[in-house]
Amino acid sequence: MSSGSRTVLAAGCVLWRRAPYDDGIEICLVHRPHYDDWSHPKGKLKRGEDPLAGALREVLEETGYHCVPGARLPTVRYVANGRPKQVTYWAAEVTSGAFAPNPEVDRIIWLPPTAAGSRLTHPRDRPLLTSLLTSLHPS
């Protein structure tokens, strides 16, 4: 297999917090100016990095928030820049921190799950919200 077709490994979190105004939750979406998109915080893994450790690192780097990981969510696969990409996701609840704009992320927004689903740029990211809600409220 040539290096040009090797799968890019990445990890991220569907970051959530308890809503300050009711019993619901809010989802954190990040705006990446380079792509002009709204997505869940995620990023490429460093060589040999554990995916969960990478997901938590990326959340902290992109949002400024520390979080506690929860359920593993579905892995998302797609092609980016001509290469296959695989992103492993976890649910993660915010514990502390504060956002400051950075080179990768210029804005974040906290939205209820339905509004977050509408704001996400890529349809492939929307099923992660359903998986998060299922993990938080198992039947």
Can you tell me about this structure?
Helices cover 22% and strands 44% of the residues. With 139 residues, it is of the alpha+beta class. The protein has one domain (3-136): Nucleoside Triphosphate Pyrophosphohydrolase. The N and C termini lie far apart (44 Å). The mean pLDDT is 94.
In short:
The protein has 139 residues and is of the alpha+beta class. It has helices at 51-63, 113-119, 127-136, and strands at 8-18, 25-32, 37-39, 42-44, 65-80, 83-97, 107-111.
Question: What is the CATH H-level superfamily?
Answer: Nucleoside Triphosphate Pyrophosphohydrolase
Order of helices and strands: EEEEHEEEHH
Whole-number average pLDDT? Answer: 94
What portion of residues is helical?
10-25%
What's the architecture, going by CATH?
Alpha-Beta Complex
CATH class: Alpha Beta
Number of helices: 3
Low-confidence stretches: none
Largest sheet: 7 strands, mixed
CATH topology: Nucleoside Triphosphate Pyrophosphohydrolase
Alpha-carbon distance between the termini?
44 Å
What is the domain tally?
1
Helix and strand arrangement:
Elements: E1 8-18, E2 25-32, E3 37-39, E4 42-44, H1 51-63, E5 65-80, E6 83-97, E7 107-111, H2 113-119, H3 127-136
Defining key terms:
alpha+beta; single chain; 7 strands; 3 helices; 7-stranded mixed sheet; 139 residues; globular; Nucleoside Triphosphate Pyrophosphohydrolase
